[in-house]
Amino acid sequence: MKHLLIIQNYNANKGDSSVIHAMKQTLLRTCNDLAIALTSYDPSRASQEYGVQAADWLVSYRQIKLARTRLLKVAYTLREGLWLPYSLLWLLAFRTGMRLFVPRFKKKTIDLYLRSQVVVLPGGHFFTTLNSVSTNLSHFCGLLFAIALRKRTMIYAETIGPFLGHLGPITRAMTHFILKRVDIVTVREKASLAYCDSLANVHLTGEIVFALETDLGLAIRIPDLNRMSCRGGLRVGLTIHHLYFRHFFSLEEYVTRMARILDRIGAEFGAEILIIPMEDCRYNGGDRPVAQRILKALRNPQHCRILEGDWGPLATAALIGNMDVCICTKTHSIVFALKAGVPTIAIAYQQKSREFMEALGVQSHAIDLRDLDADRFIAIFRTVVESRAQIRATQESALEKVRCRALENNRLLMTLFSEGKPE
To answer: What is the Cα–Cα distance from 168 to 162, expressed in whole angstroms?
Structure first.
């Protein structure tokens, strides 16, 4: 039996969660003696959702973030803060043949690391100053621990960079330190190669979720989709980003710009617009609070609503796949729409979104978030609506090549289970 540990799964995000579904489905299709385990943001939910063993991140901030009182926040911060240096001491002892005590709240995590043969940081956008310092530190420590245990390691279908602000040089140095020491690095777009310094272990592949089949039937039980279908108008799905707009606008400006666009879509095209959350609402509302502010800013809100209920990644992908047009800001919502053949407009906060659109032959239907303007957007939207059949055909004809690039990640991963050096 081959033991694979996938670390740092952020299952509060439907895109990151879909990566695990895609990896599990595609890997087990070709390797039936593979045992997959996870370290996850919410391990109990991960075990239920993916059907695998799951434990907490090696260095986790979940309980700190969700603590309801200041006292609990201090207690969890102290516990995790003490664990970080102790884990380094534990590693040093382990390397000399000693086994130190492991506290109960990290025992399952350490057991999964020790049992694994290969440790993988999965696809997403983990090494960048767009994330918080605590997030970057957690990912760094999770991989460094595996390297110190002499496990075979891989960074799998990642986006790397950018590194902005006064912490940029420090974060980039940490990232470069890790990139040089893992066995294989795969990145999902060309823009990431600029941060990899031509390292020999880096490969350009593709986003693995493109290889995950979309079961459109999973959306039939979603009431909002049935309501849209009954009304008979143009069904438009929308995803927003509740964090990264801050690099370009204030919250008020972002809300105002999105509201202007949605009002015009409703008025000029008679569309039914469904805002589809890509974050779990149980974690401080996810992206719903910003979506609600956009809804309140509309002049004519009757044409727009926020999806009711907290649906999983597979159902969310199916819902997006049932739209007539999708306006997507969150990265994996772009992937969900493109792979389902839905005519897609990407509001790109980074180059990765443009590259995904280019791979499917529809790069002209992307607009940068920083350049979000109602007139420019409506011009693109009108073109997409009027050319839907042709756009679907373009996306579908390009999909097989994109899927093959995505599956290259798995071929490289499986070489790590062999005795020789990876190719």
So the answer is: 8
